[in-house]
Amino acid sequence: MNFDYHYHPYPSQRSSVIARNGMVATSQPLAAQAGLDMMKKGGNAIDAAIAAAAALTVVEPTSNGIGSDAFALVWTRGKLYGLNASGPAPKSISIEAVKARGYEKMPVHGLIPVTVPGAPSAWAELSRRFGKLPLKEVLEPAIDYAEKGYPLTPILGKNWENAYRRYKQVLTADEFQHWFETFAPDGRAPKVGEIWRSQGHADTLRLIAETNAEGFYRGEIADKIAAFSEKYNGFLSKEDLAGFKAEWVDPISVNYRGYDVWEIPPNGQGLVALLALNIAKGFSFAEKESVDTYHKQIEAMKLAFTDGKAFITDPSEMKVTAEELLSEGYGESRRNEISEAAIEARPYQPPGGGTVYLATADGEGNMVSFIQSNYMGFGSGIVVPGTGVSLQNRGHDFSLDSSDANALKPGKKTYHTIIPGFLTKAGQAVGPFGVMGGYMQPQGHMQVVMNTVDFQLNPQAALDAPRWQWISGKTVQVEPHFPNHIAQALSRKGHQVEVAVDTGGFGRGQIVWRNPETGVLMGGTEPRTDGSVAAW
Predict the structure, then answer these.
(1) CB within 8 A of 224, min separation 6: which ones?
(2) pLDDT tens-digit profile of 293-335?
(3) Which domains can be identified in the chain, with CATH numbers?
(4) In whole angstroms, what is the distance from residue 475 CA to residue 51 CA?
C-alpha cells in the first residue's frame, strides 16, 4: 500500500497512526492496550487479537460478550486463513416448535433466538494454531478488568444507558432479571466515568483460559448454561454446546483494481460486499464527491444485497456457490441493470447491530482481522447467573418460512451479519479492515475499500468520510455531515434520501495497512465510537 495518500475534503478528527513493531486498532482504548501488551510480552498479532477480543467482552459489553459469535481472517506465514466461529441452532428447535409457542417470526429477546456461542472456541483455536503465548496469559487483561473494574467511556456509557431504558420496558420476565443484576447492579446503568466490574465475567474468563475453552463447552459453564436454558424452557442443551468447535475455512475474494479483497465465505454476509465491488469495478469513478459515484455505489449495493438475502445461509444448504455469484459474467449482468435512475430492489428492513471489530499487526508480518458480536447490542437479554455470560440472539435472523433460504432448521447456521475484511496485492498482505454494525457492514466494507483504492484516502480519512446506507426499496440514509448538494442530486435520480439524526447506525471501523517495502504500519480508528489505535 502506497502511503502517499491524497488530501480529502473532510478533515479527520485525528491523524492516521504510524508505527513499526506492532499495532492494535479497536473500538475501546483499554482493549487496544491489552492487545499491544501481549506483543510487548513476546506474543504475536494473533495473541494480541485474542487479548483484545476477550477484553472487549468486559470493556464494551454493549456490543459483545462471552456468549458472542466470532469470525477471523489471519495472515501468517505468507498465507490467509479464515475462521468461522458462528454457532448453529439448537438441535431440538424447529419452525413448528417456535410457532407452537405463538410466534410468527423469530423473537429478538429471550432463549428462543439463542444459538451456540462461538467466541470462546475462536479464542482457543486461534491460540492453539497460531499463538505464541499460553491462553492463560493472553486472557489476563480481560480477567483483571472484570475483577477490578474499569471506568466507562462516553459512547459506551451512552449505549449502555439506551439499552437499559429499552430493556427496562421490554424485559420483564423472570429469566431477564440476571441481566439487570449484572449490567445495572445499582438499579440503573453505570454512568460515564463510573467503575463497573463483574466477578462472574472474571470467573468464566479464568475458566476458559485455564481449560482452553473446554470448561465453557464441556464443563462447568456448559452445565450452567444448559440448566438455565432448561429451567426457562429454552432449546439450547449441553449436547449442543459439547458438539461445537470453530471451523477453519477458505476465504473468498474478488480482485478490485489490482487488489484482492477477502471475506469469510457464507454463512457470513461478506459475500455481499464482494458482490457489490464486483459490480462496481466495471465503472470508472473520476472523483469521490460526485453524484454519479454515489449513485452507482448505492445501486450496486442494492443488487448485491438482493442476491445476498436470497442465497446466503448455512453453506451446506446454499443453492448457488459463492464462486458462481462472483463470476465476471454474473457481475456484468447485474451491472447492466444499473441506469441513471434509482431502481427498486426487493425490499426488506435491516435490523440494527451490536458488534466489535479489531485489527492487529506485529513486526513479524502477522496480521489479524477479527470480529465478534452478540447482535443488537447486549443480545438476547439473557445472562446466565453467576457467569457474566450474556447470550447472543443470532437466531433472530432465521426465517419461519420453510421456503426461505434461511429457514430455521435444527443444527443449522443462520445468515450472519458480522464480517472481517482483508486486503492483499500481488500475493502480499496490505492489511485487515472492518466496519461493524449489522447490515451496514458490507456497505461499510465497500465504502472503505473504494475510499482506499479508488480515492487514495489514508486509513483515518477513509473511516472519517461521510457514509451512506441503503435501507430498503429506494430509501437511503446519509450522515448529517454528508454533502447536502449531493444528497439533493441523488433525490433527483429517484433515491429517497433521509438524513440520519446521528451517526450511530453507520458502522464503526478499524484499519491497519502495511507498507510491503518497509514493513511500516499505518492505522485508523473509528470516530463514531471510543476508538483507539495502540502502537509501538
Answers:
(1) 384, 385, 386, 387, 389
(2) 999 999 999 999 888 888 888 988 888 888 989 999 989 989 9
(3) 17-246+353-397 (no CATH), 249-350+430-521 (1.10.246.130)
(4) 40
Is residue 355 annotated as part of the catalytic site, yes or no? yes
DSSP string of 53-101, one letter each residue? HHHHHHH-TTT--TB-EEEEEEEETTEEEEEEEPPPPPTT--HHHHHTT
Nearest to 198 by CA among 184, 176, 179, 182: 182
C-alpha cell at 60: 464494551
What cell does 261 get? 479483497
Amino acid at 315: P
CA of residue 156 relative to chain centroid, distance: 17
Q: What is the pLDDT of residues 487-525, one digit of tens each?
A: 999 999 999 999 998 767 888 899 999 998 899 999 999
Query: pTM for the complete prediction?
Result: 0.92
Q: Which of 355, 360, 414, 529 is catalytic?
A: 355
Query: How many CB atoms within 10 Å of residue 149?
Result: 14
How far, in Å, CA of 355 to CA of 370, rounded?
11
Q: Tell me the pairing of strands 475-478 and 496-499.
A: parallel
pLDDT tens column, 431-467: 999 998 778 899 999 999 999 999 999 999 999 999 9
